[in-house]
Design a protein that fits this description.
The protein is of the alpha+beta class. It has 7 helices and 4 strands. It has a 4-stranded mixed β-sheet.
Length: 185
């Protein structure tokens, strides 16, 4: 009986944490994107200005993440975004920048589908949030097609759900802005 209530409480916490914060997961991604963007924009733009010969500042996403100011920003993000519900990590995997949210407690199998559906809904709001980060990657990292991947991982390491964003999010963001402008006219 205690185990049943623990599972129910865990599921309610996940649903309420996601529901109460509305787009909190999207906000977390936005916060982390803003931190990384401001680090690159403020500290590297003067250095990038001196590299006018079309070479990019970073050869890879891993180099980008190893840059001291970026490392400091990511550590800040980790301490800010890690909660009792999940831990946050940001790392490179080839040409992909991975944002990973790992639940601190195992989500039971019978609750996974509901949790996955809730998390999948948060992906709809991420295009505009991650477009700024994609622009930064395209500007500063010498990769033709960078990927930003957002993963939600169960405590055992199994992926609950994930979505990858490529540079087409820049086009989607522009079309979203245009369609909202048309609606307001």
């Amino acid at each position: 009986m205690k185990k049943f209530f623990a599972v129910v409480i865990c599921a309610v916490m996940i649903v309420s944490a996601t529901a109460c914060t509305g787009s909190n997961k999207g906000d977390n991604v936005e916060s982390s994107a803003e931190i990384v963007n401001s680090t690159v924009s403020n500290d590297e733009s003067s250095q990038a200005e001196s590299n006018k010969d079309d070479s990019k500042m970073f050869a890879s996403i891993q180099n980008y993440l190893e840059y001291p100011n970026t490392k400091k920003s990511i550590e800040t993000m980790k301490s800010t975004l890690s909660t009792t519900l999940y831990d946050f990590d940001c790392y490179a995997d080839g040409d992909a920048l991975i944002y990973e949210y790992k639940f601190t407690k195992q989500i039971p199998d019978d609750k996974l589908e509901n949790v996955k559906n809730i998390l999948d809904d948060t992906f709809e709001d991420m295009d505009s949030t991650l477009s700024d980060l994609m622009e930064e990657l395209l500007e500063y990292v010498d990769i033709e097609n960078p990927i930003i991947s957002v993963k939600y991982v169960n405590n055992d390491g199994s992926v609950i759900t994930e979505k990858s964003f490529d540079k087409s999010i820049l086009e989607e963001t522009i079309s979203d802005v245009n369609s909202s402008d048309e609606k307001s006219v």
